[in-house]
Amino acid sequence: MATVRIGISGWRYAPWRGVFYPKDLVQRDELKFASRRFRTIEINGSFYSLQSPDSYRQWYDDTPRGFVFAVKGPRFITHVKRLRDVDAPLANFFASGVLALREKLGPILWQFPPNFRFDADLMDAFFAQLPRTTRDAAALGRRHDAKLKKRAWLAVDRSRRLRHAVEIRHESFVDPAFVELLRKHGIGFVVADAAGKFPRYFDVTAAFVYVRLHGDIQLYASGYGEKALKAWARRASAWARGAQAAGDPRISRKAPPKRASRDVYVYFDNDAKVKAPGDAEALEKLVARHRASG
Fold first, then answer.
1. pTM of the predicted structure, to 2 decimals
2. What is the rounded distance in angstroms from the CA atom of residue 209 to the CA atom of residue 236?
3. Residue-wise pLDDT tens digits, 205-251
């Protein structure tokens, strides 16, 4: 049976103290607290810089059994190198400690900047480079360069499947060829709701669905009302059944391969006014009701 995981993007936000986090909670215990409220959280720090094996091990230890992290791939690869000459940066990322998350390592998110245009050949080559198992990732990580300042982590307790998802922010990706490319490589298309600022489409391209909710009306700030949350609950429940909610816009007219079920990951990124935790908890309840009612 498919799993629907709903959580938050990041967990360390000063305005959340005294609102979501108890006032007397020490900062080092914030992840412990949040991971008991949600079954998944996006790691954002890995987007800005390579994290250390010690950090990943600590995050693993701080979270309960059955918890799953999504990990953001480095912006150095997507925003600075813009997918060109990324052999060493990819190796550095996968050697940086990501694999220390073991069975708690969920999807890896590759977020592209608003000025990054669709280039089929470039993205095809990048997708082909991405490791599909943790053993593949360890093998890639062994090719890290001297820029990996901290000790590399290449231990793998067992080979596990890796999932990759792509979030786009330029209209040039509204091209059926992009959807076909994702399906060719089994890469997830990120369904992103960003207050109308970025493309919002609902194509299913892999054996899972990845959703990022950045704000309904105001980017990163506004919360989701009951009507909006119910719509997202219907979508998540449909995806989990291997189906799609009717009426949502799609880039490609071609339907995805049929599946009996799909895992779903939903992350609220409307953190600026402490809306994300409450919205995530509300959506979790609505999805549970949908699934219980069949």
1. 0.97
2. 9
3. 999 999 999 999 999 999 999 999 999 999 999 999 999 989 999 99
- Strand 4-9, strand 208-215: pairing: unpaired
pLDDT in tens, 160-192: 999 999 999 999 999 999 999 999 999 999 999
pLDDT digits (tens, 9 = 90+) for 252-262: 999 999 999 99
Structure tokens, 149: 């300042």
Tell which phi-psi region holds residue 66, choosing left (phi > 0), alpha (psi between -120 and 50) or beta.
left
The tokens describing 46, both together, are 């890995």
Q: Supply the CATH number for residue 75's domain.
A: 3.20.20.410
Q: How far apart are CA 70 and CA 265, in angstroms?
A: 9
**Structural domain range at position 133:** 4-293
Cα–Cα distance, 242 to 248 (Å, whole number)? 15
Q: How far is CA 67 from the centre of its chain?
A: 14
Q: In terms of C-beta density within 10 A (0-12 exposed, 13-18 middle, 19 or more buried), how is residue 209 classed?
A: buried
Paired tokens of 6: 């709903």
Q: How many domains does the chain have?
A: 1
